[in-house]
């Protein structure tokens, strides 16, 4: 039996176990997905123990995504290094590890998850003008993903200096604040808008004025609880294409599954299992 899991603190709310377990059942794959909740000071011990126990792969969530990079146990791939966060660890047998160190490999599937979520809705990324609201962990992953796929990215953040710092790392990106008419100006000619903040999760609020939205936009919200945020309601009312946050959550899991197993994920089954819990 292969064992996969999620490393974070807390993890009791996670929707990853039912999504991955549904995939195993569909493919008759002898595996289990479990959650691990070490103390923040025990991250290194937890990863060492997982490798020693023969665990095949781990997803990594808050508060450990950045901390993994500081350990000498996991070698991040190029994209995870650029993003500055690891959310998936692949424990391959030493003899088959592709990196030179022989360590486990760290990846960031949030980036590919965002792209696959947009492409699932027939959104063309190459040549698009994209606006990403938020310059935190999700904003970093999404901004790099969009830029690497050929979009021109404008990053807007409440703390403007943070947006400028991220834009300096992302190819050909620009950084902006959120005051005044900044978003209205950025969105006037934009093709894609992504909310990478938590605004809309705890209250019926939106980071984007409704009158800045238009029918030529595709609007994706990284918030998945609730599925229909105020931003997405406003976008639908403006005639925009909407992509709820569960799609990004789904496809980051799909990417991890395919990375670990080398098999095509049963996307439909995983999607049904995920949405049944939302």
TrEMBL record:
It catalyses: shikimate + NADP(+) = 3-dehydroshikimate + NADPH + H(+). The keyword Amino-acid biosynthesis applies. Involved in the biosynthesis of the chorismate, which leads to the biosynthesis of aromatic amino acids. Catalyzes the reversible NADPH linked reduction of 3-dehydroshikimate (DHSA) to yield shikimate (SA). It holds the Pfam family SDH_C. GO terms for biological process: amino acid biosynthetic process; aromatic amino acid family biosynthetic process; chorismate biosynthetic process; shikimate metabolic process. CDD domains: NAD_bind_Shikimate_DH. Homodimer. Residues 124-198 form the Quinate/shikimate 5-dehydrogenase/glutamyl-tRNA reductase domain. The keyword Lyase does not apply. Shikimate binds at residues 14-16, 61, 87, 110, 224, 252. Signal peptide: none annotated. Residues 245-275 form the SDH C-terminal domain. Belongs to the shikimate dehydrogenase family. Pathway: Metabolic intermediate biosynthesis; chorismate biosynthesis; chorismate from D-erythrose 4-phosphate and phosphoenolpyruvate: step 4/7. This is Shikimate dehydrogenase (NADP(+)). It comes from Natrialba magadii (strain ATCC 43099 / DSM 3394 / CCM 3739 / CIP 104546 / IAM 13178 / JCM 8861 / NBRC 102185 / NCIMB 2190 / MS3) (Natronobacterium magadii). InterPro entries: Aminoacid_DH-like_N_sf (IPR046346), NAD(P)-bd_dom_sf (IPR036291), SDH_C (IPR041121), Shikimate_DH (IPR011342), Shikimate_DH-bd_N (IPR013708), Shikimate_DH_fam (IPR022893), Shikm_DH/Glu-tRNA_Rdtase (IPR006151). Gene3D superfamilies: Leucine Dehydrogenase, chain A, domain 1, NAD(P)-binding Rossmann-like Domain. Keywords: Amino-acid biosynthesis, Aromatic amino acid biosynthesis, NADP, Oxidoreductase. Its EC number is 1.1.1.25.
């Amino acid at each position: 039996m292969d064992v996969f899991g999620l490393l974070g603190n807390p993890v009791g709310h996670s929707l990853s176990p039912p999504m991955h377990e549904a995939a195993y059942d569909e493919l008759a794959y002898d595996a289990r997905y479990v959650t691990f909740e070490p103390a923040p000071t025990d991250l290194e011990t937890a990863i060492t123990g997982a490798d020693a126990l023969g665990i095949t792969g781990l997803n990594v969530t808050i508060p450990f995504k950045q901390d993994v990079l500081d350990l000498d146990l996991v070698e991040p791939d190029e994209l995870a290094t650029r993003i500055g966060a690891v959310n998936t660890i692949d424990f391959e047998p030493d003899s088959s590890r592709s990196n030179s160190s022989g360590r486990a490999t760290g990846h960031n599937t949030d980036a590919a998850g965002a792209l696959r979520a947009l492409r699932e809705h027939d959104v063309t990324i190459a040549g698009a003008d994209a606006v990403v609201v938020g310059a935190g962990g999700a904003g970093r992953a999404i901004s790099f993903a969009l830029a690497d796929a050929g979009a021109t990215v404008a990053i807007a953040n409440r703390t403007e200096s943070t947006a400028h710092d991220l834009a300096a790392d992302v190819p050909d990106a620009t950084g902006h604040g959120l005051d005044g008419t900044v978003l209205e100006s950025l969105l006037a000619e934009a093709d894609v808008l992504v909310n990478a903040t938590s605004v809309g999760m705890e209250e019926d609020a939106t980071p984007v004025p409704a009158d800045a939205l238009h029918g030529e936009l595709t609007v994706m919200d990284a918030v998945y609880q609730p599925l229909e945020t105020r931003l997405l309601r406003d976008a639908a009312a403006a005639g925009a294409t909407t992509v709820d946050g569960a799609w990004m959550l789904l496809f980051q899991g799909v990417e991890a599954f395919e990375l670990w197993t080398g098999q095509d994920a049963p996307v439909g089954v995983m999607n049904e299992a995920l949405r049944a819990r939302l």
